[in-house]
Design a protein that fits this description.
The complex is a heterodimer of chains A (about 110) and B (about 110). Chain A is mostly beta strands and about 110 residues long. Chain A has no helices and 11 strands. In chain A, the strands form 2 sheets. In chain A, strands 2, 4, 5, 6, 9, 10 and 11 form a 7-stranded mixed beta sheet that branches. A 4-stranded antiparallel beta sheet of chain A has the order 1-3-8-7, with no helix packed on it. The mean pLDDT of chain A is about 95. Chain B is globular. Chain B has no helices and 11 strands. In chain B, the strands form 2 sheets. In chain B, strands 2, 4, 5, 9, 10 and 11 form a 6-stranded mixed beta sheet that branches. A 5-stranded antiparallel beta sheet of chain B has the order 1-3-8-7-6, with no helix packed on it. With about 110 residues, chain B is mostly beta strands. Classes of the chains: A mainly beta (about 110), B mainly beta (about 110). Chains A and B meet through strand 5, strand 9 and strand 10 of A and strand 4, strand 5 and strand 9 of B.
Chain lengths: ~110, ~110
């Protein structure tokens, strides 16, 4: 089966600019996650969707980050305006359900802020 | 607070030897644990999982052991190969699906 698809793979922007990432989960996976992975650290959950509803966005910096999953399949994550500390890899993952199911990750988008 | 930690940041083994990567967790209520492998430039790859009603689970060349008494998790890789070189993360799956990752252990396999 096809894995989680993400684009773009790399993005370089200047601070205060905006950027958007796209994710297509594994077919049939109802739960979708966005993670931020800073170099040398483990991934940190930003937001979790169950179908097109938000389950957990407690660690999403809502003043600058937003995410949506309008039709319950693809998702986009946006940052506006970007800060230097947002430089990281943004990973999307999906799973069949929200609990006690393996999450499968895409290869991420590496974001560099100048 | 809750955290998942790894005992060693780096591990170097000889090709063909067995590798053991350890992980400690702090939340005794956690009931599901996952090991991931992450190669440079790629996303974490699912290796094996274990539920809290089990002590041991085996996959292909990998075994995960769970000791709930001391809140310890380990990943054993048999006959380690150069392709096993990567960063390994344990992750605690909290109720509702929120994964808490540790810092990771970098495994280097010497030919």
């Amino acid at each position: 089966e096809a894995g989680v698809a993400q684009s773009p793979r790399y993005k370089i922007i200047e601070k205060r600019q905006s950027v958007a990432f796209w994710c297509n989960p594994i077919s049939g996976h109802a739960t979708l996650y966005w993670y931020q992975q800073i170099l040398g650290q483990g991934p940190k959950l930003l937001i979790q969707f169950q179908n097109n509803g938000v389950v957990d966005d407690s660690q999403l910096p809502k003043d600058r980050f937003s995410a949506e999953r309008l039709k319950g399949v693809d998702s986009t994550l946006k940052i506006q305006p970007a800060k230097l500390e947002d430089s990281a890899v943004y990973l999307c993952a999906s799973s069949l359900g929200p609990s006690n199911q393996p999450q499968h990750f895409g290869d991420g988008t590496r974001l560099s802020i100048l | 607070g809750e955290s998942v930690g790894l005992h060693l940041p780096t591990l170097s083994v000889q090709e063909g030897d067995n590798s053991i990567i350890n992980c400690a967790y702090s939340n005794s209520a956690s009931d599901y644990f996952i090991w991931y492998k992450q190669e440079s430039g790629k996303g974490p790859q699912f290796i094996i999982d274990i539920r809290s009603n089990m002590d041991k689970r085996q996959g292909q060349r990998v075994t995960v052991l769970l000791n709930k008494t001391v809140k310890h998790l380990s990943l054993q890789i048999a006959a380690t190969q150069p392709g096993d070189s990567a960063v390994y993360f344990c992750a605690e799956n909290k109720k509702g699906g929120k994964l808490i990752f540790g810092q990771g252990t970098e495994l280097s396999v010497k030919p």
